[in-house]
Every structure is written in structure tokens, then in C-alpha cells.
Amino acid sequence: xxxxxxxxxxxxxxxxxxxxxxxxxxxxxxxxxxxxxxxxxxxxxxxxxxxxxxxxxxxxxxxxxxxxxxxxxxxxxxxxxxxxxxxxxxxxxxxxxxxxxxxxxxxxxxxxxxxxxxxxxxxxxxxxxxxxxxxxxxxxxxxxxxxxxxxxxxxxxxxxxxxxxxxxxxxxxxxxxxxxxxxxxxxxxxxxx
Amino acid sequence: xxxxxxxxxxxxxxxxxxxxxxxxxxxxxxxxxxxxxxxxxxxxxxxxxxxxxxxxxxxxxxxxxxxxxxxxxxxxxxxxxxxxxxxxxxxxxxxxxxxxxxxxxxxxxxxxxxxxxxxxxxxxxxxxxxxxxxxxxxxxxxxxxxxxxxxxxxxxxxxxxxxxxxxxxxxxxxxxxxxxxxxxxxxxxxxxxxxxxxxxxxxxxxxxxxxxxxxxxxxxxxxxxxxxxxxxxxxxxxxxxxxxxxxxxxxxxxxxxxxxxxxxxxxxxxxxxxxxxxxxxxxxxxxxxxxxxxxxxxxxxxxxxxxxxxxxxxxxxxxxxxxxxxxxxxxxxxxxxxxxxxxxxxxxxxxxxxxxxxxxxxxxxxxxxxxxxxxxxxxx
Amino acid sequence: xxxxxxxxxxxxxxxxxxxxxxxxxxxxxxxxxxxxxxxxxxxxxxxxxxxxxxxxxxxxxxxxxxxxxxxxxxxxxxxxxxxxxxxxxxxxxxxxxxxxxxxxxxxxxxxxxxxxxxxxxxxxxxxxxxxxxxxxxxxxxxxxxxxxxxxxxxxxxxxxxxxxxxxxxxxxxxxxxxxxxxxxxxxxxxxxxxxxxxxxxxxxxxxxxxxxxxxxxxxxxxxxxxxxxxxxxxxxxxxxxxxxxxxxxxxxxxxxxxxxxxxxxxxxxxxxxxxxxxxxxxxxx
Lengths: 193, 380, 285
What we know:
- Chain B is of the alpha/beta class.
- Chain B has helices at 9-13, 25-34, 50-62, 74-86, 98-102, 106-112, 137-142, 155-169, 238-264, 284-298, 316-325, 339-345, 368-379, and strands at residues 5-6, 19-24, 40-43, 67-70, 91-95, 118-123, 148-152, 178-183, 191-196, 201-202, 225-227, 268-271, 277-281, 303-308, 310-312, 328-330, 354-355.
- In chain B, helix 8 crosses helix 9 (238-264).
- Chain C contains 11 helices and 7 strands.
- Strand 11 (225-227) of chain B pairs parallel with strand 2 (91-94) of chain C.
């Protein structure tokens, strides 16, 4: 039986870290988010995202296929908004164009793969990463691997129900929420000047 | 021409105007499917399931279901169902007993592929010599297959659970199959009063693009995608990838708890839960348990009942807490192995409280007196 | 071309070159074929199959022959080809060993429901073990039901991925694992089974004649769109398990054609022939 509440903290957590859901972390309700496994208001989580990105030495965004490819209406706008957020936060962007186990190998300099996300994180010394536009199944697989083997702090901006395996998880994220985070980041930078 | 209106699921689940039907369990499956906005159903006969898929065929002929055919065997049917689900439609099938085992390879595959298939299992014996009679032993085989397992006690449960199973299965953070089990013949072939929503109502359609994995339609990104590659042969750390994948499938089942609570009230139902003696089980064993409880209480004995509706995920915490207060836990079952007693023992603190029986199998009925005998023994 | 094959403008600068070249110089939306190989970015660019693998060559030719890759969904099966398919730039499915035609049946019908106005080509590509042995019932039943799918067998006459065991498609007398004294029954005549099962178009071809192979793949897919099931068998010898040199694969194919132990052949239903004639007329104006 659990004696201490499980916290979704940055790793390296160990050889095979558990899925946060199996440790009692429940996906957040609509309108709320998860920060290190605790349910908080979405606005609070947005502030935390801004903090994490601005405090990072090398923050990197990992946009996935749902936003890299302009496959449906509204994607282009969201992609643009993500790019603006990355620019505001001084973050680099490394894409996850698909989920295949790539043969013979990936180039960790310019791409990330959900089957071994640690390679890209280690290669580029990434201390904070942000997942966006990655199908939930593959995002969760990768987020656990990152928690297990790296000390990278993970943020997930999810258009669906969120990711309890990330350290900060926002759910139902659309264009407005992305722009809101960008505004917070910009405001923070103003006050820090 | 069928005219049905898409309504909020809550409105179908709790309609202000209900209709009472006196129908068999198989007909309850039909009434659930009629309102479930099912795109496709694929059938294969096996007793005692066959009638439910005949009736699904009738719904196809009437226009409620858009596509339907009979496959060549259960393994093939479960494969075709997988193909349909990967193409992004809402799909239903049903089987039971030997059919379940013939198709077995598919169930962990459905879960691993994150397919929100709803399958009803009308359980029967599986072992040689052949029997078509009720027996829940196939459920023991499926406990670790990765699918969500709901167990209906009555035709009403069967209707309610199938209609809700689609919404539970299709949640993005769940998106794994739901098996709705009922005890063959006892539920499928007997008539009971079932309250149903107006037939003009149907559930909202499935949205293939809220799925946690891409639909295989060459319409959604990424177009370079395989469902599902051999990650274990891909690269040097891929065993961890496979492990993380499996963990995610278990996590998906875990996440379904809150949706089961939302749509079915709870993973369990209780009557007199603070009693010294608790009868805990699922399916029609609970109906017999209830009769025994009534007789015992009439005799002044302190007996309560816990009906487990969700076998996977298992109501671990709920059962653990209930077991703390009880002195004796009687687990009646329709199978020879006593898998439910094992499940209960695996989550409670004092396993000596568990009486793993009475058990009947091979098509035998379970007289409430046999449960009452156990109650009497505990009360001495 | 549809937006599915378009990179979001904001991310154009960071997309790896191979994806951009697949869009700019790939087979989508064009009319590429086997004679264009070497001039365009192929759906399958790298794979882990053995040197000289006949299956890899056939697969490359088949993928280059697809008439409409932007609306093609492939269903594969367990075997060597399943190691290459993760790299293919089309939606494709590996479900289990042998259930490919059952999966494809459900997939095709479901896609017809979702996209009634778009032709979605569902093409099964699986090995001989998957097609002629473990999955034969499902293969044949998909033909009996006249499912609108194309079934392509990559026939390397063995279970290659599991280490070279006898399959139903091995030749009589072949000494392989699990046939230590030589196979004691003849190679299964799947094309004739397909024809008897009601396929509208059936062909047995080899990668030694890419144009013929392309014609068969295209005819098979066109027939599946409009008339019924189709079957194409492609002899794809395995140097690893049959122990010949990787550079002898095509020679091996040619010698088998010459000695008559692998016969290239084609069966066309009247209805399919009318369809091909009509399409030929349209093409020629």
C-alpha cells in the first residue's frame, strides 16, 4: 500500500519508472491542470510553465505530427502560436515528425523519437522540454522514458485529457491557451528586465 | 427511414421518460445497440451468444447499424473488428466460451493497439467435454489481457453497461476495449423488466481524431505510420519502449475508474455493507447471494452484499475498506477455480476471512441454500 | 495536394530534409512508377532486411507501382516484411500473424462508411506463411465475400523471419528447417485457388520483370476498386535461408521461370477485362 503520495518529479527516476496513473495520479478535470501530480487551476499551471521555460538553460519544444503537418483546419494557426511561444521563451524547436522506430537511427541533433527520446535530450543537453501535438499514447510512452533516464523537466500542452506522466500537464489546450502562456512569458520577461 | 436524434449521453443514460420492456438479455443488447450509434457490427455464431448478434443484424437491416457481416470464425471476426476500429469507426461484436478462447490472441492486441472496441461476452464453459452451459471461467483467462471488464448481473445491467461502455472506451485517456460480460443463458435467455431510453435517442458519434493514436485512413497525420511496429527490434533501448507501452495500456485501464464511476455510479454496489458477513461476487452469483442474504436477514443474521460491477479495473480500495469491517467474506462463483475469491484475497489485509465458495460449474444452478449454508457455518 | 502532405508553415525550417523531399519529390499526387525509380523519393527509403533480399526488392517495386499512394492503406502481417513496413510512408497495419485479410476486410468496409466519396485502396502485403498457411482461411474467405481488397503475397517459399522453416509455398523436396527429409507435398497453387474463389483478377509475377509486376499491381488494385477481390503473387527468393549469394537473386528468379517451376500467369474475369479495356480507352482519349 502507498504510504507517501507519488510525485511526478524530474528524473532520472530509475530503471523502469511506473506510470503515474498506477501510482494514484488522476488526470485533471476540465479547467484544471496537473503540476507534479497535483491538480491546480489552469492559470496556476500556465504560470508554472512560464517559470520553467524562463528558468531553463536550454528549453526545447518538441512539436509532434498533429501540429507539424497542416492536416486539418486550425493547425497552421496553432503551429504559428507555438512558434511565437517558443520565440518568446527563447526555446529551440526539435520536431517529432512521426512515431516509427526509425531505421537505421535518428539524428538526435535535429529530431526526437518517442521510442528513445532520451537520445535527443542527452545529445542536446535539454533541461526543460515541452510536448505539443503528440498523440497521447506516444507522448505518455516518451514522457515515462524521459522521467526514467534523464533529468529533463517535462511539460505537456495537450489538446485532449492531458498527461499525468508529465511534470506539468495542461489539458484541452487550444489557440487561446497557447497565446495566454505567451503573454505570461512576455510579461515575465518585461518585469525581469 | 430511421429518425434518431443525437443527444448528450447523460440524457440517454438518465432519460426523463423511460420505457419499460419485458425482454431477454439478448434483446437488451439489441436495445442498447439501437441507441449507441454503432457504425459496424461483425458476427459469428456461438451458443449462448448467437441471438444477440442476430438482433444486431436486425438493427443493420432496419438501418440502425450501418455495416454488418458474418465472419468466418471468432479469430477472424475479432481481427476484422480491429481493422474497423483502426479505420476509425464505432464497432461492436459479441462472443462467449470457446469463441472467446478461439479469438484470444486478439484481446491483448486490441488493448495494446488502443482500440475502443466494445465486445459482449456471454460466458459459458470452455473445457472438454463440450458444454454450452453457463460458467464464468473464461473471465479468469481475460483478467490480464489489458481490456476493461464489466460484469452484468441482469438484463438491465447488460443494457446499461453496453450503452455506457462505448463512452468509457472512447475517452482519449482510456481508449482501450471494454468487455461487457454476462452469464450465458441465465441473463441472455431469460426475460426481465428493462428500462430503456426512448428509441429516438442515440449517442454522439465516435470521433476518430480524438484518439490517442492515429486512425489508419490516410487522412490524419502522420501519414508515415504503422499500427503497430515491432519496437522491440528497432533499436538498442527498445525493450524500455515496449515496457513503457505496456505501462501506458495499464494506465489507460486505471484512468477508466473515474469514467466508470461517472457512468455507472461506482465500481461496486452494496446492500448492508456494515454487516459482519459479506457476500461479495459479481454476475448472477450476486442474484443468488441476494436471495441468501434476504433469508439470512429474515433469520436475524447480520449479512450484507457487495456486487462488483467492474472486474478490470478492480475495486481494490473499495473492497479493502469493506473487508476491514467484516468478519467473514463469502464468495459464491459459477466456475471451478474461484478466480473471484483469489482477486478479493489479493487486495484485502486478512485473507483468512475469505470463504472461497460455494462454487458450481458445468451448467449447475446455485441454490441460495448453498450460500445460506456457508452463512450458517460462519454464524456459529 | 491535400494538406496531409504539407508541413505547417511555422515549422518548415526545422523539418528534417527527408520529410521535405518526400513532399516535394515523392510519389504523392503524381504519376510515378517503376520506370521512375531513382528519380523520386520512395515511400520506403531504408529498411533492415538482408542484402539481396528478394522480398525487399519486390516491396520496393510494389510500393512504386501503387496507383494512388495518397489514399492507400496497407495491411501487413508478421514476417520479414513487417520489419520494413514501419519505415513506409503510408498508413499501414501490423496486427497479428495470419489475420491480415480479416483486418483488411473490417478496415476497407469501415473506410467505405467514413469516406463514401473517396476511393481508399486497401492492399494486403504479406508473406507466404501468412497468406498460404496460417492465414489461408481468412485470405480465402475475404475472396469468397468479394471484399474490395488486393492481396499480394511476397512468396519467398519459407518462413524466413523465424529462421528458414518449410512453408506451404516451398517446393516439394526442399530441405528446410522442419522439413529435414525434404518437403513431401507440392507448392500450393494459390493463384488457382484465388481464381476458383472468385477473384476478379489474379496474377503471378516476379521482380525480374518490373513492368509486368507494376501492371499486375495496378490491375489488381483497379479490379478491387470496381469489381471484386484480387490476388497477386510475387516470387521473392530469400538468399539467407536458401543459401545463395545476395547478388544472384534475379538470376534465381529467372532460372525458376525458365525451368517452369515458377510460372508467371494471369487470370482476368470478363468484368475486370471490360474495366481494363474501358480504362485503356479513357487513357488513350
